Amino acid sequence: MTASRTRLERLWHRPFRRSDRRCAAPEARTGHPAAAHRHTRPHPAPHLAAPGPVSRLSLPDGTELLLRPADPADRAAALAMHGRCSPAALRLRYHGPVRDADRYLDHLLDPRHGHSLAVTAPDGRIVALGHLMWDEDEAELAVLVEDAWQRNGLGLALLRRLTAAARAAGVGTVYAVTQAGNAGLIAAMRRLAAPLDFRCEDGTLVITATLAAGAAPAPAPSPGR
Fold first, then answer.
1. Contact residues for 47 (Cβ-Cβ < 8 A; gap 6+)
2. pTM exceeds 0.85
3. Cα–Cα distance between 165 and 30 in angstroms, integer?
4. How far apart are CA 37 and CA 34, in angstroms?
5. Main-chain phi, psi angles of 3, to 5 degrees
6. Are the C-beta atoms of residues 13 and 109 closer than 8 Å to each other?
7. In this predicted model, what pLDDT tens digit does every residue of 87-140 receive, in sequence order?
C-alpha cells in the first residue's frame, strides 16, 4: 500500500461542493442542496435511533433472508462480501475503484458514527449492507448489494429501515451520494415516499430526501434493487 490516499479517502476528506446545477438525468424538484458528506461525527443521542430488530425478507423464489443490525463483529463477513462484489457495483457505491475495504469498514461499522444493517443469506453470508452515517443535523445513506442478490428489493428494504431510524433520531434530512448513472439507487430512493432533491456535479449525484415526522412504516419491499 502506498503512502498516498485512496480515491475513497480523498472523497471522504473533500466536501461535495454545493452546486446550483440540477442533474439533467433524473426528474426532480429543486430544494436545498445536500450537505458536505464526508465529515460525519457521532450523533448527540444515538440511543434514540435503534436500527430495528431482526426481520425476515422473503424473496419470490421462497428464499428467506434476515435483515439485522450490523456491528464491528461483522467486519470479516462484510469484507468477504466486498470481495464477491463486481468492480462495477463497488464503483457505484464508492464513486470510484475500491481496493482497501478493510480501511473504511471499521468506520462504517462503528456505532459511534451511525447505524449499519446487514442482509444475510440462509448460509449466514452477508449479501447486502446499509449504513446511516450522522452528519451534523443530517445523515448519509449508503447501500451495497452483492451482484447476485440485486433486483430483489434488498436495497429498498435497507433504505426504508435506515430512514426510519433517522426519523426516530429526529433527523429530518437524509441523503445518498452516488454516480449519476446509478438507476437502481435512484429508483429505490424514489420509493421512499419522501420529497427528493437531485443535485450533481462532475458525474457525482447527491439525492436528498426530506423525511416527514411521524410517517407510518413502509410496507415490505417488492422486487427491485
1. none
2. no
3. 25
4. 8
5. -75, -20
6. no
7. 889 988 887 667 777 778 988 999 999 999 999 999 999 999 999 999 988 999
